[in-house]
From TrEMBL:
Co-factor(s): NAD(+); Co(2+); Zn(2+)
HAMAP family, per the entry: DHQ_synthase
Protein family (similarity comment): Belongs to the sugar phosphate cyclases superfamily. Dehydroquinate synthase family.
Native organism: Deinococcus xinjiangensis
Coiled-coil region list: none
Recorded metabolic or biological pathway in which this protein acts: Metabolic intermediate biosynthesis; chorismate biosynthesis; chorismate from D-erythrose 4-phosphate and phosphoenolpyruvate: step 2/7
Compartments in which it is found: Cytoplasm
One Pfam entry name: DHQS_C
Ranges where the 3-dehydroquinate synthase C-terminal domain occurs: 184-320
E.C. no: 4.2.3.4
Protein name: 3-dehydroquinate synthase
Keywords: Amino-acid biosynthesis, Aromatic amino acid biosynthesis, Cobalt, Cytoplasm, Lyase, Metal-binding, NAD, Nucleotide-binding, Zinc
Taxonomic placement: Bacteria, Thermotogati, Deinococcota, Deinococci, Deinococcales
Amino acid sequence: MPTAKPQKANGAGVQQIEVGGPQPYAVQVGGGLLSQVNVPEQQVTLIHPEDLPPEFVERVQRQLGPVLTLSVPPRDECKTLDVMAGLLSRMAKAALPRDSAVVGLGGGAATDLAGFVAASYLRGVAFYTMPTTLLGMVDAAVGGKTGVNLPEGKNLVGAFWPPKAVWCDTDTLATLPPAVFREGAAEAFKHGLIADPSLLGRVLDPEFRPHGALLESTLADAIAVKAGVVSRDLTERGERAFLNFGHTLAHALEGVTGQATAHGEAVGYGMHYAARLSRALGGTDLTAHTLNFVRWQQPTPLPELTYDLISPYMARDKKADSDGMRFVLLHGLAQPYLARVPEEILRREFVGWWEDIQGLGLKS
Ligand SMILES: NC(=O)c1ccc[n+]([C@@H]2O[C@H](COP(=O)([O-])OP(=O)(O)OC[C@H]3O[C@@H](n4cnc5c(N)ncnc54)[C@H](O)[C@@H]3O)[C@@H](O)[C@H]2O)c1
Ligand SMILES: O=C(O)C(=O)C[C@@H](O)[C@H](O)[C@H](O)COP(=O)(O)O
Ligand SMILES: [Zn+2]
């Protein structure tokens, strides 16, 4: 799969990755960026999670001037239609016009919600993202998939609504709990498996950490994978589906646990299932890579699960069509494809996956 390589934008160590497509924009990666952000719109709604370190919010407020600042519950608690309705009412009461903008500041949950608010308010206003988690930087804040969850499953309502610019201030990663940083590593590792195998070792390297020697170059290369894919296929008519590697089981795990499983941990678990399915269908055996990732990530252990409990959630995956479920699999490293998998293989590999995960002896 071809990837776009980032370019250095300036001498201050800020890297810039260009995203193409119908509305091109840039992703900037570097330290101190929250103190440099700027948007042309006069009126702005700033949406952030309530548990975000307040200095990030203050930095953006100082930069943008008076803004309508709206805080939302942490993690996926904010990705509901109820929370969204509350935000839209606040914006309508403030009579924000169509030429205003919405800024999403925080992790992927907050930027997914903010983007869907931007896509919906007055049928669409400008949107900007300022991700403050690893996952947000390498994945969620780029590419314009926005949305919220339903009780029936993950991201079941949403819109493609790309941001006009993305600022990844790498200084913000310093306050991230290490476990949340490792959640985000799952999506960077995924980019390694589907497109850029050079990422696999780098993502697990001890220098890939806040302020680490490998942080910014690895971030930029992981973002470049996503930028390349969404530049060519914004609305998932084709290759964008490959970004969903590991997600059929991941979203089912999140759904069946009522969103108690963090997305990045669910993706770690889900990639191992997808690697097992890939091997079962004749692909190169990549399960040592994926199991090693889960061991490294040390996710929260899962509750007792069975295939019958999980499969209704997998059936609601957005890659399913009228002929049934489809999975992103790998012929080998950087060779993703979309396939239907016979039910008996799904069931058998689920049992093997569960045994592999139990064998790790994860501690809660
Ligand atoms: N739109 C997309 O393409 C896309 C891609 C991947 C994931 N997602 C979505 O992203 C969400 C997961 O995002 P996430 O992993 O960023 O988790 P998250 O948004 O749930 O954030 C995790 C926690 O960290 C806090 N936090 C954020 N930045 C912080 C910082 N710098 N310091 C301290 N705490 C901080 C958050 O407030 C939250 O409580 C899921 O809802 C997932 O579905 C979307
Ligand atoms: O950007 C994409 O496309 C992705 O699939 C990236 C995923 O990491 C992300 O979790 C996305 O939100 C999943 O999308 P969905 O369409 O399966 O809900
Ligand atoms: Zn994801």
